[in-house]
Design goal:
Length: 272
């Protein structure tokens, strides 16, 4: 018989709350939400009030001790150190803030391998990582992500502030950024986790190219991936609807987190 998985959730915002509610509906013998954590205690308490389960509200270190599987939905600053601590404690971890590990992922993956634990990176708001992973087993010549966003979705990004870009003055399609995924994540840490997931699945953040385009006509985030590989050309496009809780987070990302969790806990895995 499979053991009941104790889950610890770090980040009780838009994605975290939906993950917690999904776990709450799962059969009690498959998984239980054992602990939750948030830097804003009110967010954790509000989430607790919506759940049937009674997870403890803990700090991240205590949560890691308590859980078999840690789920991160907080921020890029949290995900890197949390992955390190989780794999050092030989615990499995799923993270949404993929940007937080983009510089150190080879070392973290090696540590997880050594310690016999798993790191899960959901596809988030993009589609096509199945084909990217398969293509990466051969030679990929080019990997490119084009992200289209309403200007307001880029507000507060370091690149926008540093270059004094007036987002309100944008009237039509405007290319805001072109560069590597590594540069994109520095300039747009809250917006471009998808570029990091694509980089890790494909040819790495230095070689993956990113373009960010803004227009007031866009209602949600659209992500297009183009891969040119030995195995052929891949082109995917996700036209996303914003999640009700956070216009910067696509609803597909919320569902992708829950789908990954169901795959971890379930017995059947569909797709690459
Ligand atoms: N992989 C993807 O495709 C994808 C898509 C959307 C969002 N994301 C990322 O997922 C993360 C969560 O997104 P969201 O929409 O739920 O954000 P959100 O702002 O709605 O929620 C984040 C929560 O984390 C908490 N938090 C922040 N810093 C923390 C810390 N140091 N310790 C504990 N808690 C902390 C906040 O208080 C908040 O409750 C973000 O980093 C976001 O960039 C990834």
């Amino acid at each position: 018989m499979k053991k009941r998985i104790k889950i610890g959730l770090v980040g009780c915002g838009t994605i975290g709350s939906e993950i917690a509610l999904a776990i709450d509906k799962m059969p009690a013998e498959s998984a239980v939400l054992a602990a939750i954590s948030d830097k804003d205690i009110k967010k954790a308490e509000a989430l607790l009030g919506r759940l049937r389960a009674r997870p403890e509200i803990l700090g991240a270190d205590e949560l890691i001790k308590k859980a078999d599987l840690i789920v991160e939905a907080a921020s890029m600053e949290v995900s890197g150190p949390l992955v390190k601590k989780a794999v050092e404690a030989k615990k499995d971890i799923m993270i949404m803030s993929v940007g937080g590990i983009v510089k150190d992922y080879p070392a973290l993956f090696a540590l997880a391998e050594q310690n016999g634990c798993r790191i899960y990176l959901p596809s988030g708001a993009i589609c096509g990582l199945d084909g990217v992973k398969a293509s990466a087993l051969g030679k990929i010549k080019k990997a490119e992500l084009t992200t289209r966003k309403p200007p307001a979705a880029l507000s507060g990004a370091p690149f926008i502030e540093r270059n004094k870009i007036d987002l309100k003055a944008i009237r039509s399609e405007t290319v805001i950024f072109q560069g590597s995924a590594l540069e994109a994540i520095k300039g747009f840490p809250a917006n471009i986790n998808v570029a990091c997931a694509l980089s890790i699945a494909g040819i790495g953040p230095e070689k993956t190219l990113v373009r960010i385009i803004a227009s007031p006509e866009y209602k949600g985030n659209t992500h297009e991936i183009v891969i040119e590989a030995e195995s052929g050309r891949l082109a995917t496009r996700a036209e996303n609807v914003p999640s009700p809780g956070n216009p910067k987070t696509s609803y597909l990302a919320v569902l992708s987190a829950i789908a990954t969790l169901k795959q971890i806990l379930g017995t059947v895995k569909v797709g690459t």
